[in-house]
Amino acid sequence: MVSHSGLITVMTRAARKAAPRLRRDFGEVEQLQVSRKGPGDFVSMADKRAEQTIVEELRTARPDWGMLLEEGGEIEGNPDKPRWVVDPLDGTTNFLHGIPHFSISIAVEERKPGGGSEITQGLVYQPLTDEGFWAEKGRGAWLQDARLRVSARRDLADCVIGTGIPFIGRGSPEQWAKIYANVAPQVAGIRRFGSAALDLAWVAAGRMDGFWEDDLDLWDTAAGTLLVREAGGYVTDYRGSDQMFKRGEYVAANGDIHSRLHKLIAGAVR
């Protein structure tokens, strides 16, 4: 068994407690596709119920910590303590359509002594496959008890790159199209799976060689970014700096591929 801090145990327990209900709700979605009301309201409730379960578990373990929640917004805690960053259902549109690709993302954000903050623990959990991708700052990234490493590929032509395509009300289709036009001819394939948290976890696991997306929120990416970095990869914003959480822009890959992917993206957004 790999030893990890009690926080990873707490996060895993919270995710696993929310998972059975999410799995049941996911099974119900197919039946709701034909109803007049449609599954949208039902999925929104599934999202909220999962968040409530996770919040209760995390609160029990660390009652004085604050929280940043996708559904519930910000909950103030002791300002001297870390806070939880939670997305109870990343991949809601997939869930809504009965596509079996979504995740729970939980991270710990700690304040740094000199100002600012950093993500120190992260978990991305896939309820349908029971895969728990977790990382702790300085202690590596793991899938259950197996150590994760980013892909070792060095040639863009051999790489599969993940992305998120802008949709109604989110992102810039024009900018995305420019980036796509730069990247697509250089790579083996581009994939759009619909859960940024899992995309980043898959980069950490070497299943994809890189990833880019913008207009993402902290709860989508906090755990996944730590996973990639602890698996030996790089994550920056589109300008190549460490402002991805602030700007909501993410380029993730191993060192060689990140350098090339970043140049293609930067050339499209100048």
From TrEMBL:
Keywords: Hydrolase, Magnesium, Metal-binding. It comes from the Bacteria. Pfam families: Inositol_P. It catalyses: a myo-inositol phosphate + H2O = myo-inositol + phosphate. Its cofactor is Mg(2+). InterPro entries: IMPase (IPR033942), Inositol_monoP_metal-BS (IPR020583), Inositol_monophosphatase-like (IPR000760), Inositol_monophosphatase_CS (IPR020550), Inositol_monophosphatase_SuhB (IPR022337). Its EC number is 3.1.3.25. SUPFAM superfamilies: Carbohydrate phosphatase (SSF56655). It is an enzyme of class 3 (hydrolase). PANTHER family: INOSITOL MONOPHOSPHATASE, INOSITOL-1-MONOPHOSPHATASE-RELATED. Belongs to the inositol monophosphatase superfamily. This is Inositol-1-monophosphatase. It comes from Sphingomonas limnosediminicola.
